[in-house]
Structures are given as structure tokens and as C-alpha cells.
Design brief:
The protein is mainly β. The protein has no helices and 11 strands. Strands 2, 4, 5, 6, 9, 10 and 11 form a 7-stranded mixed sheet that branches. A 4-stranded antiparallel sheet has the order 1-3-8-7, with no helix packed on it.
Length: about 120
């Protein structure tokens, strides 16, 4: 059984910052790519940022220069530092991990954490 648990969401004013965390636990042999997605009301889920095990990162154009993804491989944890937040960043943010359990490689998802940017 694999679990991804996000934390760190909340309400923040425009221009503010939040740091999301996602801890992966369970029967894990190896984690390949870890990523953050988000889904705003009435919109499709979109990739925000991803990071491979070696540390290379990828960002959506809308967050480049404002968000930073990082990971702690020893703790199976991924972070998303979000600065200069805008109202359009409001969404439910989901953690995703492409991992191998020893008998299966698959994508796993967290339950999501709400981020609201509003004055």
C-alpha cells in the first residue's frame, strides 16, 4: 500500500508565499519522477512542476520564476515553494509520484490540498 499525503495549503494574499509538502510512504523500492499538478474549478488538471530522481526539473510557463520544486530522496518527500502568488494560482494541488513497489510501477496520487490566493 502506497500513500501520498500533502500538506501546506491554505489561504494567502496575492504576492504571498506558501510551501507545499508531500510525503510518500508504504512499500516503495524506487521513486522516479515526483510532480505537482493543480486543478482549478471548471478546468482540467494541469502539470505545475516535476522533478526526476537526479534533480532535473520542469515547470509550467505560468509558474516559472515563481515556484520551485525540490525533493528529499532520503525522506521520499517532494516540496513546492510558491512565491509571488496570484489569484489565478488558486486551485487544488495534487502530488504525484511515478514509483516502483517491487512488483508494480505506476503513478500514485495524493488527496490534494487547497490553495486559495485572495485579498
Amino acid at each position: 500500500q502506497v500513500q501520498l499525503v500533502e500538506s501546506g495549503g491554505g489561504l494567502v494574499q496575492p504576492g504571498g508565499s506558501l510551501r507545499l509538502s508531500c510525503v510518500t510512504s508504504g512499500s516503495i523500492v524506487r521513486i522516479y519522477t515526483m510532480a505537482w499538478y493543480r486543478q482549478a474549478p471548471g478546468k482540467q488538471r494541469e502539470l505545475v512542476a516535476s522533478i526526476i530522481s537526479g534533480g532535473s526539473t520542469n515547470y509550467a510557463d505560468s509558474v516559472k520564476g515563481r515556484f520551485t520544486i525540490s525533493r528529499d530522496n532520503a525522506k521520499n518527500t517532494v516540496f513546492l515553494q510558491m512565491n509571488s502568488l496570484k489569484p489565478e494560482d488558486t486551485a487544488v494541488y495534487y502530488c504525484n509520484a511515478d514509483l516502483f513497489t517491487g512488483w508494480r510501477r505506476a503513478d500514485y496520487w495524493g488527496q490534494g490540498t487547497q490553495v486559495t490566493v485572495s485579498s
